[in-house]
Amino acid sequence: MSALQRRRLLALLGSTAAVAAAGCIDDSSLPTDGNGDGSDSDDKGVLRDGAVVDYPGMVDGDASVSGDEEKITYEDPEATFTFQYAYEGDTDDPSQLRVSRDLSGETMAAFIAPVYDAEAEAFAYHAFANEAFLEYADWYYVSGRSNDPTETGRASFEPVGNGVSRFVIGPIDVGTAGLIDAPPEEAQSGGGELTGVILTNGSSGGTPSPAPNVSWGFDYDSAAEEVTITHEGGDTVRGAQLEVVVTTDDRTTTSPFEGEVAAGDSVAVDAPPNAVVRIIWEAESGDSGAVLARWEGPEA
Fold first, then answer.
1. Helix (H, G, I), strand (E, B) or coil at 200
2. 174-233, pLDDT tens digit by residue?
3. What b/e readout covers 128-157, taking b as 16+ CB neighbours within 10 angstroms?
4. Within-domain flag for 37
């Protein structure tokens, strides 16, 4: 995978990770601990019912978690946080990686709980993970403002009981915090597909570039084993901002679009019948990205 492709995947996880990777930070210079490693924090009262993170209980109910556990709303101070995650580059595979307060089971699972530190006037991000998550990789944290990450390094988790461990990032005044399975330099320059969990404070940093509104059509030729992708209406998009990812047993990323892509424009890409095809867009600024469309082959 090229450096550009890695940055685009990082953009799907969150702008802090993308900018941290773009900085080409040398792994040898990374600290082994974050702003906090959990060693000085009180582990009591962070779990309930075995391996379930007691949140918002651990902040005395000052926050609420959405039913799908993808968003956290903090009451005082007012803040809204949103999760993004990916497993080996796939941004929608909860069968491999769950973002959940329930960290039981053998599937990789993690949850990041923002806790406001009144003395520091900033949030600390408590990253909880189960044993399957910790065994998967040596984890690295990224944190800071959405457009200017200030901290990155190796995450040193401490056990809190029942197979759950915690690593504390911060306090940091605003922005984004999360975990990725590679040092930022490697995440930019290549290697395996990225896995990670990012929590973004939507009330801080700049406003991400909105994704284009486009209707895409897919026409499959089973004899030729290729799919024709057509822009059927909506916004015009620069071809340089689009990638087509074809996933089978392997994963192939191409940039078949050229120039300005408008209604009626189409490209054909190789796609065996068990393929899953995604169209991925990245903002010119690199501050955001999105999966614009997804198609599954007849045997996928």
1. strand
2. 678 899 888 765 654 444 477 889 888 865 444 556 789 999 999 999 999 999 999 999
3. bbbbbbbebeebbbbbbbbbebebbbbbbb
4. yes
DSSP per residue, 55-124:
TTGGGTT-EEE-TTSSEEEETTTTEEEEEEEEBTTBSS-TTTEEE-SB--SSSEEEEEEEEEETTTTEEE
Same domain, 52 and 91: yes
| CA distances, 265 to each of 212, 224, 243, 270 (Å) | 16, 20, 15, 17
Question: Mean pLDDT over residues 89-98, rounded?
Answer: 78
Confidence of residue 92 (pLDDT cuts 50, 70, 90): low
pTM to 2 decimal places: 0.61
In a domain, 206, yes or no: no
Residues 211 and 280 sit within 8 Å (Cβ to Cβ)? no
Cα atoms in the 13 Å half-sphere on the side-chain side of 72: 27
Residue at a domain's end among 138, 172, 201: 201
